[in-house]
Structure formats: structure tokens, C-alpha cells
Amino acid sequence: MTTSSIPGYRLGDTTLPKSPLTKDDLATLKTTLLFGDADVAALRQAHGVVEDQVEAILDVWYGFVGSTPHLLAYFSDAKTHQPLDAYLDAVRKRFGQWILDTCRADYDEAWLAWQDEIGRRHHRSGKNRTDGVSAAPHIPMRYVLALAVPISVTMKPFLAKKGHASAEVEAMHAAWSKAVLLQAILWSRPYAREGDF
After folding, report:
1. What is d(CA 124, CA 191) in angstroms, rounded to the nearest whole number?
2. Contact 109, 18 (CB under 8 A)
3. Rounded Cα gap, residues 109 and 161, in angstroms
4. Which of 89, 115, 150, 161 is such that its CA lies 20 to 30 A from the CA of 60?
5. pLDDT more than 70, % of the chain
6. Which residue intervals of the chain are DSSP H helices?
7. What pTM does this model have?
8. Phi, then psi, of 130 in degrees rounded to 5
9. DSSP at 77
């Protein structure tokens, strides 16, 4: 599947509004997260490890969300409370691409703009618009941030499946965890008052 065949996927879309954050802002945030060149290299190594495991990773994550009623509600019809299968499928395709994008670790202006868009898609300012669904209209920021933990913790077994040395697995996992938190922080920007982010 190419990225152009994933509905709603917009990394690199030049019509997205530019992020108000600069590359310098991103650099200082990465410094605060202790995220450096070694992490970029470890993420890029992880790309080759997980690229053929994306569906299995998504099975774990979707199993968690599907078995957690307060999370599944954000993918369910707001009136009937029934899961919206087409919505779950569409998000799954983008989520799978997000795994690979995270491992590519290409932090340019297009990536920053895409993080803003992802944040809006969780916030009431943009939730449900991409897929035209009637799910819950807003995901509270607490869940956007909290999900960084299960998305990080559950990745480690997949990073260990290709026989890399323990130190390499640890480095890939640490880099993955930092990258996930970095993005969750960026996704929280629409939730902050002007000047507070």
C-alpha cells in the first residue's frame, strides 16, 4: 500500500497549514526529551525491524483500545455507542503508516505540520471531519498523553523479534518511547490556550 492510497493521510501535503512551531522549537523540545542523533539512528534501525510486523503491532493496540470501553467510545457512534468499523479501519491504515513514519525520524517542516493536523484530529476543532463520522467529537488531552505509555511499552517485544543484541533493542525501544512522547506533546498543542503551549 502506498501512502497516497491511505485515505486521510497527509504527511507531505503542501496544503496543510504550517506549524507555528519552528525547527528551533522542535530542537529544544528534543533536547529536553534527551532525544539526539543516536535516537534517530536507533529509530531508523527499528524501521527495518518492524516494517513487516505493522499489522501484528496494530492487532495489539486495537485489542487494547477495543477492550477498554472509555477508549473505544471515541471510535463509536455518539448516539448508538456501537463501534464504527469503517472509521476504525481507516484510522488503522493511518496508524500503521504512523509507525513507519515514526521510525523514519524525518523531522522537517512537513512533519511538523502533520503533527499539528494529527493533534486537531483528536481535538474538537477537527475530530471526525476527515472521515465524516459521528463518533465522540473530542478526545480529552489526558488520553492523548496517557496512550504514549501503552504504545511505547507494547513495542519492545516486536523490536526484540529479529535477534538484535539486548543493547540494540534497548536503544531502539528508548528512542521509540521518546519519539512517541515527542509526538504526543506536539499533538496536545490544539488543547492549549494561545501562548500556553
Report:
1. 9
2. yes
3. 33
4. 115
5. 99
6. 23-32, 37-50, 54-66, 69-72, 85-104, 109-122, 141-146, 148-153, 156-159, 166-187
7. 0.96
8. -60, -40
9. B
Residue type, 188: S
CB contact at 8 A, 127 and 137: yes
Here the cell at position 33 is: 526529551
Residue 35 is which amino acid? F
Relative orientation angle of helices 23-32 and 166-187, to the nearest 10 degrees? 130
The identity of residue 96, as a single letter, is G
Using alpha carbons only, how large is the chain's radius of gyration in Å?
A: 17
pLDDT per residue as tens digits for the range 159-184? 999 999 999 999 999 999 999 999 99
Query: Which amino acid makes up residue 117?
Result: E
Residue (of 147, 157, 150, 158) closest to 183 by Cα position: 147
Please, are residues 150 and 167 in contact by the beta-carbon 8 Å criterion?
no
At residue 77, φ and ψ (nearest 5 deg) are: -60, 130
Mean pLDDT of the chain: 97
Query: Which domains, and CATH codes, for the chain?
Result: 31-191 (1.10.490.10)
Amino acid identity, position 75: F
For residue 88, give the C-alpha cell: 476504525
- Say how far apart CA 25 and CA 23 lie, in whole Å: 5
Instruction: Give the rounded distance of the alpha carbon of 27 from its chain centre.
Output: 19
Please say whether the beta carbons of 133 and 176 come within 8 A: no
State mean pLDDT over 110-120: 97
